[in-house]
Amino acid sequence: MGVLDNIKRKISDFSFSRKESPAREVKAINIKHAETVGIVYRGDNEEAKELVERYVKFLKAYKIKCKALGYFDADELPLYVTPKLEYDYFVRKDLNWKLEAATPEVSNFIQEEFDILIDMTITDDEVLRFVIRESKARFKVGGSGCKVANDLDFTIKLQDGESLRHLMKGLDNYLHLINKE
After folding, report:
1. SS3 helix, strand, coil % of the chain, rounded to 5?
2. How many CB atoms lie within 10 A of CB 152?
3. Which run of H or of E encompasses 10?
4. What's 137's domain CATH number?
5. What is the tens place of the pLDDT at every residue in 81-130?
C-alpha cells in the first residue's frame, strides 16, 4: 500500500464521517411483500458474485424487481463480465479522490427507493460504504461489525470464521419472518 493510497483512505474516511444519510422513511418489510430489492456486493469476490446471481433468480421467482451493483477493484471490467438488465458494475477508475463512485449507474442506484437494500459485504469496504449510506432504500440490511453497520436498519452478527453464505442465510431467514402475516 503506497503513501498515495493511505492519503486517499484518510480523505475518504474524513469525507465519509461528514456525510449524512438522506432523509428517508424506514419501513421493515417482509421479502415476499417487497416489490424492489437492491443488492450491493464486491464483484471481484467469486463467492459473492455466485450468491448474488442465485439470489436474484430466487427473488425473480417471487416477481420481485432486482438491481445488483457490483464493484471490481480493477481498472477495467473483466472480459467475462457484461452489464445486464439486473446487474450494473463500476471499477476503480470510476472513483474520485474521496473513493466515491461518480457514474450514472451508481447515481441511479443510489436514487432508487428500493424496498430492501442488501449489503453483501462482511468486511469494511471503503468504496461500497458510500453507496450504502447515500441510498434512499426504505430498509437496509447487512452484516454487523462493519463501519456501515450504523447505516443499516437490520444487521446479522456473524461469528469469527463465518462466511458470506452464513450472512445470506441469516438475512433470508429473517427477511421471511419480518411482518409475517
Report:
1. 40, 20, 40
2. 20
3. helix 3-18
4. 3.40.50
5. 777 888 999 998 998 877 788 899 999 999 999 999 999 988 877 788 88
